[in-house]
Amino acid sequence: MLDPNELTVHTLTLRQLGSAEQLAEINALPIADVEAALEKAVADGAVMAARGNFMITPAGREFLDDVYARAFAGLRADPAVTDAMDSFETGVNKQVLTLTTDWQTIEVDGARVSNDHADADYDAKIVEKLGRVHEKTQKVLQPLAQQNPLVDRFLDRIGAALIRAEGGETDYVSGVRVDSVHTVWFQMHEHILRLTGRERPE
């Protein structure tokens, strides 16, 4: 497990640039703990402040490399976690990437064009498929969630985005300005890669 200071710096690798409030939304720490951690990280040179937002520095990334090796040694050696990551990368992750492409584009006369979301039935089918993949992902990542509760938090946030998408808020599928399925999935993927010491597949 990571302590609040380590977790706050780690969260900046998932969001790249963010305020204390935005980081707390991701890592579930009390805002006061995040603010204190950011103050310390800035003083240590691990984080840079920029007009109310924060970003990690190269020194912060080196700090985390040492932290990960210590904090997640047991998780990385667990065969169940290795199997779960293999299943994630070859299965549900590819399915979400494909469904995101299908959401953003639609085939017209044999060519892929931008989806204007005029076809509500088409959109509803994509959201339904994403819901099924989400349910499967909860099972696939269970070995990681048992050792790292933040994995379940990401899955809950994806579920919340799906509920809003089902209600007609289409930005919650792949929008970049909200906690959409695609945005939170990307954060979750980066998180579990860092837990397990893997590289993001090309």
Describe the secondary structure blueprint for this structure.
Elements: H1 4-15, H2 20-27, H3 31-44, E1 47-50, E2 53-56, H4 58-71, H5 73-76, H6 79-104, E3 105-108, E4 111-114, H7 120-140, H8 142-145, H9 150-166, H10 171-174, H11 181-196
Antiparallel strand pairs: 1-2, 3-4
Main attributes?
single chain; mainly alpha; Arc Repressor Mutant, subunit A; 2 domains; two-stranded antiparallel sheet; 11 helices; 4 strands; 69% helix; 8% strand
Write up this protein.
The chain is mostly helical. The protein folds into 2 domains: 4-71, Winged helix-like DNA-binding domain superfamily/Winged helix DNA-binding domain (Arc Repressor Mutant, subunit A), CATH 1.10.10.10; 78-196. The protein has helices at residues 4-15, 20-27, 31-44, 58-71, 73-76, 79-104, 120-140, 142-145, 150-166, 171-174, 181-196; strands at 47-50, 53-56, 105-108, 111-114. Strand 3 and strand 4 (111-114) form a beta hairpin. The two termini are 28 Å apart.
- How many angstroms separate the termini? 28 Å
3D shape: globular
Q: What is the overall number of helices?
A: 11
Mean pLDDT: 96
Number of strands: 4
Parts with pLDDT < 50 across at least 5 consecutive residues: none
Element order: H for helix, E for strand: HHHEEHHHEEHHHHH
Kindly state the percentage of residues in helix.
55-70%
Q: Strand count, sense and closure of the main sheet?
A: 2 strands, antiparallel
What is the total number of structural domains?
2
Percent range for β-strand residues: 5-15%
What strand order characterises the main sheet? 1-2
Structural class: mainly alpha
As a whole number of angstroms, the C-alpha radius of gyration is 18 Å
